[in-house]
Design brief:
With 343 residues, the chain is of the alpha/beta class. The protein is built from 12 helices and 11 strands. The chain folds into 2 domains: 15-213 and 332-341, Spore Coat Polysaccharide Biosynthesis Protein SpsA, Chain A; 239-324, no CATH class. α1 links the parallel β1 (15-23) and β2.
Length: 343
């Protein structure tokens, strides 16, 4: 991938940690997110909070501004850009030695910040984070797909909603890629690894993700959206084969769906069901194989049937996401586009 320069500048650290929260129409969760941050068991003077809003049409900004009295908080509105731009804007305005990115629908634990500072004291050369935890009342869909407790140690990536890095290393990497709408956290972590940094997963740094899909429809929609730029990241760094597993599975599902379509045509014209049966079997068997492999690898054998269903939905959703590849996207707004400094 051709890396673009970012307009970041070194600044003297006024806080230990800058917590950066991108938000868009999150009035149902931003209060819970900031409540948890306000009760972190560490001195308030050690961290600041920056809420970077993407032009919300609801009460997200109003709710966030109400926390200025109990948090070192600033709220900035920058509408119509990708989440990577929101995170980069927060980093540009931050004064902390470390940058911690938390999504507006995530809940940190009381000891999250103390644990994070402790991890950086052990090793500053890398990215710290964890995969999300799911809400306690989650459905079988969330438990099967997202319910595996994250391992501890080096990992390929951590989600952007629970990712922390030193400001100096963030500047070195040039921030998140602003040309991609999704998959920006994976691309960032892989680029960090190319620069000799290590991404560390630590379950003590996990946040509860209130936005975890709880229905099959929500799961499908989220996977379709997440797949928007998976192929773009893959083609942008083709020799490194980033996202290769997902790309291969998506192409497999695409080929079987094409076979199903051909089988339906053959059935209608020639009254032959053979092609349709073969294609449908290949589609379902591929999903079942993926589900069983993951269930066995995670030592959660009982989830194999559920994961098989979800891999079928996942594959079809990622095929549907290919339809957005040819759409022209809005060009990210320039760095001077912060339209209002609210608090």
């Amino acid at each position: 991938m051709k890396e673009k320069s970012r307009n970041f500048e070194e600044s003297r650290s006024a806080y230990q940690v800058s917590i950066i929260i991108p938000a868009f129409n999150e009035e149902r969760s931003i209060g819970s997110c900031l409540d948890a941050i306000a009760t972190l068991r560490t001195a308030d003077a050690e961290f600041e909070v920056l809420v970077i809003d993407n032009g919300s049409a609801d009460r997200t900004v109003e709710i966030a501004r109400n926390y200025a009295g109990c948090l070192n908080l600033r709220t900035v509105v920058e509408p119509g850009v990708h989440v990577s731009v929101l995170r980069n804007t927060g980093a540009r305005l931050a004064t902390g030695k470390y940058l911690a990115f938390v999504d507006a629908d995530c809940i940190v634990s009381p000891h999250w910040l103390a644990n994070l500072i402790g991890r950086f004291r052990q090793n500053e050369r890398g990215i710290w984070g964890a995969h999300y935890q799911i809400p306690a009342s989650s459905t079988w869909i969330a438990r099967a797909w997202y319910g595996k407790t994250g391992a501890s140690g080096p990992t390929s990536y951590v989600p952007g909603g629970t990712l922390a890095i030193s400001r100096s290393h963030f500047l070195m990497l040039g921030g998140f890629d602003e040309d991609i709408q999704t998959n920006e956290d994976y691309e960032f972590c892989r680029r960090a690894r190319d620069h000799g940094l290590i991404t560390w997963a630590d379950p003590s740094l996990a946040t509860i993700h209130l936005g975890t899909p709880q229905t099959l429809t929500a799961f499908f929609q989220k996977q379709r959206w997440h797949g928007t730029h998976v192929f773009k990241v893959f083609w942008g760094a083709l020799p490194k084969l980033r996202n290769v597993t997902t790309v291969v599975y998506t192409l497999y599902v695409l080929s079987t769906l094409a076979g199903v379509a051909a089988g339906l045509a053959a059935w209608a014209v020639y009254h032959s069901i053979i092609v349709l049966l073969w294609a449908a079997s290949a589609l379902t068997c591929g999903a079942a194989a993926a589900g069983c492999w993951r269930a066995f690898s995670e030592r959660r054998i009982r989830t194999a049937p559920q994961l098989s269903i979800l891999y079928l939905a996942f594959g079809i959703a990622r095929v549907c996401s290919l339809t957005s590849m040819g759409r022209k996207e809005k060009t990210p707004r320039p760095r001077s586009s912060c339209t209002s400094l609210i608090s």
